[in-house]
Amino acid sequence: MAGIKSLAKETAVYGLSSIVGRFLNWCLVPLYVYLFPTEDYGIVSYLYSFTAVALVVLNYGMETGFFRFVNKEPDPARVYSTSLSSVGTTSLLFIVLLSLFIRPVADVMLLPRHPLFVWLLGVTVAVDAFSNIPFAYLRYKKRAFRFAGIKLLNIAVNISLNLFFLLGCPALMRHCPAMVSWFYEAAGGEAFGIGWIFVANLMSTLIVLMCLLPELRGHRFGIDGKLLRRMLSYSWPLLILGVAGIMSQNMGQMLIPYLFKGAEEAARSMVGIYGANIKIAIVMVMFAQAFRYAYEPFIFAQAKGEGEDKRRAYCDAMKYFVIFGLFIFLAVMFYLPVLKHFVSPAYWVGLRVVPVMMLAELCFGVFFNLSLWYKLTDRTQWGMYLSLLCFALMLGLNLWLVPAIGIPDGYMGSAWAALISYFTVMVVSYFLGRKYYPLPYQTGRMFLYLLFAGILYFAGCYAEEILATWMLYAVRALLLAVYIATVVVAERLPIPGKRL
Prior knowledge:
Blueprint: H1 2-26, H2 28-35, H3 38-59, H4 62-70, H5 76-100, H6 102-108, H7 115-140, H8 144-175, H9 181-184, H10 195-211, H11 213-216, H12 225-249, H13 251-259, H14 264-277, H15 282-302, H16 309-334, H17 336-339, H18 353-370, H19 372-376, H20 380-405, H21 411-436, H22 443-466, H23 469-491
Helix pairs in contact: 1-8, 1-15, 3-7, 3-12, 3-14, 4-5, 4-7, 4-12, 5-7, 6-7, 7-10, 8-10, 12-20, 13-14, 13-20, 13-21, 15-16, 15-18, 16-18, 16-22, 16-23, 18-21, 20-21, 22-23
C-alpha cells in the first residue's frame, strides 16, 4: 500500500502541473475561436496533430527505454548521457533536413502557402523531443516539484506570449506603435494571424530548454555504442507503438482534409469544430497523462521487488485509475452545459463528440495500464502489434465512417472510430496479459463501478428533462456525491478527519 500512496502523491504533483497547465492552455481556445474563423483554427488543430506524431518519432521510445535501463544498469549516468546524446543528435539532424526541404514538406501537408508555420512547429517539436530526456531524468530522480514547476512555467510563458502577440501588439500598434512596430510589422503584423501562436510556442519551448540546463551540466555527453544498441533494440517496437498510437489519437484531424479534397474550406471547418470540442474531453487525457508520468517509473521500480506485494500494487493502480476516470467522466458530462461556454457558440454543434471521446480516452488509459505486461517481460514487440492493430482499425473506420457521414458532421465518424478502436485493443491486451504476465485484476469490481457510473449518468440525463436548471445541478452534485460515497464505503477508504 505504501507504493500506491507514493504513486498517488506523485500522480497528484504531476497531475497538478498537467491539469493546471492543460486547463490554462485550454483557456486559449476561446481566444483562438473568437479571433480566427473555423478554417484558420482548423489549420492550428491540423498542424498540432502532425506535431504530436513528429514528437513521438523524434523520441523513438528512448524515454521508456531510459526508465528501463536506468533501473537495470550499474551506471545510471551512462544511460542518461547515451539517451541525451542520441536524441540530441537526431533532433538536430531533423531541424537541418526540415530547413532544407521545407517547401516540399509543406506541399505534402496540403499547406503550400504556409511553409513558415510548418518550419516553426518543426523546430519546436525537435527542441521538445530533446527536452523530454532531462524531464525523464527529473522523474527518475523523483524531483516531481521541479518537473511540475518547469512545466507550469512553460505554460505561463506560452499563454503570456499568446496574449501579447494576439491582443497586446495590435492594441499597442493603435496607441503606441513605436514600442512593437520594429518586430511586429516586420513579421507581418495582424496579417500573420495564427502564425503568432506558433512563434509563442517556439519561444516558450526554448525558455524551457534554458531552465533544464542544470540537468544538462555536469554530465558527460557521449554515446555508449553497446548500450545504445541494447536500448534501441528494446525501444524500437515502442517507436512503432508510439507512432501508431499517436496517429490513432490524431487520426480524424489529420485525415479529414485528405478525405474532402475540393472542399478544403469545409474540411478545415470540420477539423476546427472537432478540435475545439475534444478540448473539453481533454480532462480525461490530462488525468491519464498525469498518471502515466508517475506510473512508468513506478512499475519499473516495483519490478525490483519480490512476492505478491508488487502484483497487488499493479492491480490496485488499475482499479483506482478506473474509479477516478469514471468520476471525471461523470463530472464533465454533468456540467457540460457550463463547460461548453469555453468554446464559441459556433462550435457547439460538435458537443456530441465529448461523451464518445471521454469514454475512448478512458479505454486508452486502461490500455496503457495494461501495457506493463509487455514492458516488464521485455516483449515490447507486442506493444507494437497492438498499436498497429489500433492504427489499422482507426484508419479503416475513419475511411468508412467519416465520408459516410459526410459534410458537416463527418468528425463524428472519427470519434466513434476512436472509441471502437481503443476498446478493442484494450480487450485484446487484457487477454494477452493473462497469458504472459497474469495479474489478479479485480475485473468484476471494476465492471460494477462502470455499471454504477452508467446508471448515474443516465439518471443525470433524465433529470435534465424534468428539472429546472438550478435543481438540475443540485441533483447532479448529489449523484456525484453518491458515487464518491459508494467508492469510499466499498474500498474502505479512510475518511479525512475521522479517527479509526
